[in-house]
Amino acid sequence: VQTLIHLIVLSVCPTLIWISWKASPVHRNVRYALIVSLLLEIFGSSSRLVLLWAQYFNANLTDYNDLLLLASLARRFYYLYFTLLISGLLGDQKLYPVKWLRYERQAPSTFLVLLGTGSFISAVSASFSFMLTFHLDADSISTSWIEYIAISSMREVKQLQRRSGRVFGVYSLSRIYQLRENIAVMQMILKMGAPVFKYTTPATVFFFFCIALPANYEFARNFSIAMFDWWLALLSLAVAASLPLFDFRFRKIAVQLPLFRRLITPKNVNSTKVFAVKHAVNDVRQASDVHFSILDRD
């Protein structure tokens, strides 16, 4: 079953990459970040398929030590990268000056900021992946860092929501554009965040169940790890497949495909309220367009 799920992920991700590439109204940095994330999803699913192949179809694992080592590193890198992804999106917003018109113009230099934040996340993920794979006693360190980053990221999201409701005259046009793009991304994350947190709970239970069991309960420990991987594979497929549904600009591209056309009704293509978000700012895009509407009338 887990193999089938990963194969579906590998078949769906190219379509999602095409949707992200074609959604040109979305800022280029946002689209590039989504495309890289989907490529890493392909990378992570492929690494898990390698481990499953070695586990079930090859008894002599010593002949494939290097391949299995790379697959184990890739698997842990994949999980850590997506854990830290929200901090990278927030860092991308923080590093831009308040009145940087290049962001609105999507100048090539803005890509350097995305490259810097992405490289930082990749370096942190690779470091923790290496330490966890080689049992370098990094569990407490990595857990503390991830908890700190998660709490800080959620605080920044709340601040971004409050700033979106202020009087737009205090910001430059480029700043309003930047805020609108970041708010759209954060709304997508918040819409996915609650379901992901809820449905990640069983995987967490399986993980701690494996840790708590003594070493002589080998079958139960292996079963718990298998269920942990199976559940996260299913969750990653659900999150990836639902990605185009969380923003109207992606839905406009997605409805061109028969699969998503059945899920998105015509009246919801341009709607910003298909998925309700508790405590989120209502109709953020309409509020951010007020300033531009006034300029058009002038």
UniProtKB/TrEMBL annotation:
- UniProt keyword terms in alphabetical order: Membrane, Transmembrane, Transmembrane helix
Output the superkingdom of the source species.
Eukaryota
The Gene Ontology biological process annotation of the record reads: sensory perception of chemical stimulus
- Note the InterPro entries from the entry: 7TM_GPCR_serpentine_rcpt_Sre, NRL-GPCR1
Keyword Membrane attached = yes
Pfam families named among the record's database cross-references: Sre
Similarity-based family: Belongs to the nematode receptor-like protein sre family.
Q: Which PANTHER family match?
A: SERPENTINE RECEPTOR CLASS EPSILON-6, SERPENTINE RECEPTOR, CLASS E (EPSILON)-RELATED
Designated name of the protein: G protein-coupled receptor
